[in-house]
Amino acid sequence: MSLKGINAYRKGNLKQEIANADPHRLTLMLMQGALDRIAYAKGAMERKEIAAKGEFLSKATAILINLRDTLDLNVGGEVAQNMYALYDYMVERLTDAHVKNDLQILDEVTNLLSPIRDAWLQIPEAAKQEALEAQRQKRQAV
C-alpha cells in the first residue's frame, strides 16, 4: 500500500474516531494532538525545516487556543480561569519558540501540557459519565 493510501486510511479512521468520541475523549485527542505537533515542530526545528516547523507550531497553537476557548469560565470558576491563563501562556511560548528557534521553549510547553493530559487520562469513568449526563440535561433545559 502506498504512503498516500495509508494517510487516507488514517484520516478516515480519525474522522470516525472523532465522530464517535464523547467530549472527554475529544479533549484528550486535542491535547495529544498538540503534544504531537510540538514534537514534530521540534524535529523540524532540529533539521532546520523552517516551513514544516511553522506549520506544526501553527497547528499546535490552534489546538491550544481551541482548548482555551472551550473552557466554561462561569462554571469552572478559579480552576477554569487558571487553565485559561495557562493555555494562553503556552500559546505565547510557542510563538516565542517559533521566533527564537528555541528547542527549550518547546520542551517547556510539553512539560506544562503533558501533566494536564496525564491527569485527564486519570479521570474515573464514573466522573466522565456524570459530567456527560449533566451536559445532556443542560442542553435539554435550553
From TrEMBL:
Family designation: Belongs to the FliS family.
Keywords, sorted A to Z: Bacterial flagellum biogenesis, Cell projection, Chaperone, Cilium, Cytoplasm, Flagellum
One Pfam family named in its UniProt record: FliS
Compartments reported by the entry: Cytoplasm, Cytosol
SUPFAM superfamilies associated with the record: Flagellar export chaperone FliS
Mitochondrion is among the record's keywords: no
Domain of life: Bacteria
GO cellular component, one term: cytosol
Any one of the GO BP annotations: bacterial-type flagellum-dependent cell motility
NCBIfam families: fliS (TIGR00208)
Main localization category: cytoplasm
Keyword Cell membrane annotated: no
Gene3D superfamilies associated with the record: Flagellar protein FliS (1.20.120.340)
Any coiled-coil regions, as ranges: none
Name of the protein described by the UniProt record: Flagellar secretion chaperone FliS
